[in-house]
Amino acid sequence: MNAERRKRIASLCDKIEELQAEIEAILEEEQECFDNLPESLQSSERGEQMETAIESLESAADSMNDAMEHLQEAVG
Questions:
Q1: In Å, how far are 5, 15, 54, 63 from 12, measured between CA atoms?
Q2: Sequence-distant (≥ 6) Cβ neighbours of residue 19 within 8 angstroms
Q3: Whole-number Å distance between alpha carbons of 61 and 48
Q4: What share of the chain is helix, strand, coil (3-state, %, to 5)?
Q5: pLDDT tens digit string along 6-18?
Q6: Which of 10, 13, 21, 75 has a CA positioned 20 to 30 A from the CA of residue 43?
Q7: Reported pTM
Q8: CA 6 – CA 58 distance, rounded (Å)
Q9: How close are the terminal C-alpha atoms of the chain, in Å?
Q10: DSSP, res 38
């Protein structure tokens, strides 16, 4: 792989890291809000929706990490 493509991949990795950090920040905020709900509301529809959102955000953050690993493997 030539230097230009390596540079483009490095730039993509930087962007992915920024996105991952933002996702993780939102995840932490949502988790904190859920944790601060009374137990009776945690098991309500709203609480279940929050838990679903938390799981989806965790999955998105993991996917960002996987994408970076694959890009880094591509450049060797």
A1: 10, 5, 25, 14
A2: 64
A3: 20
A4: 90, 0, 10
A5: 999 999 999 999 9
A6: 21
A7: 0.88
A8: 28
A9: 9
A10: -
